[in-house]
Amino acid sequence: MAVTLAFSLVGCSSHQDTPLFSASGYIADQGINRLWREDDSEHRPQTLINVYSPYYGKDTVITRYEYVDGELHLIKESHAAAKDLGVTLRFDQEGNVSFMQRQLADAKEKLSADDIERYKYQADKVLNLSKTLRAGNVQLVQGRWRQGVITTCAGEPVTLSLNIRSQVWLAKRAAKADDKLGLAWLTAPEGNELLLVANEDFCLWEPKQGQLN
């Protein structure tokens, strides 16, 4: 499945209706992307965090994008399973690379011109997706499942209306769970979409407004 609930939505929002902090996500070909975005007082992007969880493997990739006056200033990629690995790219006011580094297990190296263009392209793609998802009122919610009860990270109990596939998925994981599960889902005018079910408490690290910077 590719970017469900995103490009099927048509809508627009004015700056007055646009929140300065938002969370969303989408389903990509090989995994799940969760996005947290915080804008400055003029509604320009300030910080955008993309957490990519692949369907296969456990190497969650966290990419942080920072902006100055709405222009891309920093790309910082890290790996949850290997914290010593990562990529850092900084840009000056003209958009030129002022610092680059790829951290390997036992060395550091520069990025190629193709690597830099790929990271810049991905940054544009994620930013545009965040705009589309926000305009379509597609919101990410994370929470916990415990003994059949689902609560958000804020502690609010919720009843999710899920499709059959998601119901079966959750039921299978719940049958094997000792105590509780971590959940992530999308809410939109078209309905709910279950993104992740895991033996992990997403609420322990979920970004909050004012904490991205």
TrEMBL record:
Name of a matching Pfam family: DUF1481
Protein name: DUF1481 domain-containing protein
Species in which this protein is naturally found: Rouxiella badensis
Lineage: Bacteria, Pseudomonadati, Pseudomonadota, Gammaproteobacteria, Enterobacterales
